[in-house]
Amino acid sequence: MNTSAEAVAELGADPLQRSAERLFWASVAGAAGFALLAVLLTLMRAVPERAALLARLRTMGLRRRQGWR
Questions:
Q1: Which residues contact 64 (CB under 8 A, 6 or more apart)?
Q2: Which of 2, 20, 23, 39: CA 20 to 30 A from 63?
């Protein structure tokens, strides 16, 4: 009869188990990459709107230093 430690070691050495673990971590990394890409694209899309807003506020007396904040 196998002990639980031996059973865990046997399952951990299974090639299918290792492949599933690699696939899981690759999926996690891919999801993190897509999340970062979504944030960056959202920020890039907001740049023209922010520039127009700052231009309007500058015409109303906003200083450049205040715009940076």
A1: 58
A2: 39
